[in-house]
Structures are given as structure tokens and as C-alpha cells.
Specification:
The protein has 65 residues and is mainly alpha-helical. The protein has a domain at 25-65. Helix content is 42%, strand content 0%. The chain is built from three helices and no strands. The protein is globular and about 35 Å long. It starts with 7 loop residues before the first helix and ends with a helix.
Length: 65
């Protein structure tokens, strides 16, 4: 992924949008409109490397959640 930006925030947004067309950037939604599991352990999700960890982090940072 090549995402050149003036700031870290701009670069991470570009990189996430380039990963998949259904991704709008650093948002608490999974790609391809997949749903989150009913019972989730966010602390565990954040501690283990996965392809959805960045979206779990966005969900934790979301003030509406």
C-alpha cells in the first residue's frame, strides 16, 4: 500500500481506503458491510494481530459507542 500524505492521519486514511473499496477510512465498520459478532471481547481483539484490529480500535475511539 502506498499512501503518501502530509500527516500520519492523512496517510492512514489513504492506506485504509486503498485496502478495499468498501472501506471509508478509519471507521468502526468492518469491510464488505460484515456485522460484528454478538459477543465480543474488545480487549482480546485489540491484543491479537488480525485484519480487523484497526476497525476494533476505531470502534473503541468512537464517541457514539
Amino acid at each position: 500500500v502506498m499512501a503518501v500524505g502530509r500527516t500520519f492521519e492523512e496517510s492512514i486514511q489513504k492506506a485504509l481506503r486503498m485496502c478495499h473499496p468498501s472501506v471509508d477510512g478509519f471507521v468502526p465498520r468492518l469491510p464488505l458491510k460484515r456485522a460484528w459478532a454478538e459477543q465480543r471481547d474488545l480487549e482480546r481483539e485489540l491484543s491479537l494481530p488480525s485484519s480487523t484490529r484497526i476497525f476494533s480500535l476505531a470502534q473503541v475511539c468512537d464517541p457514539e459507542h
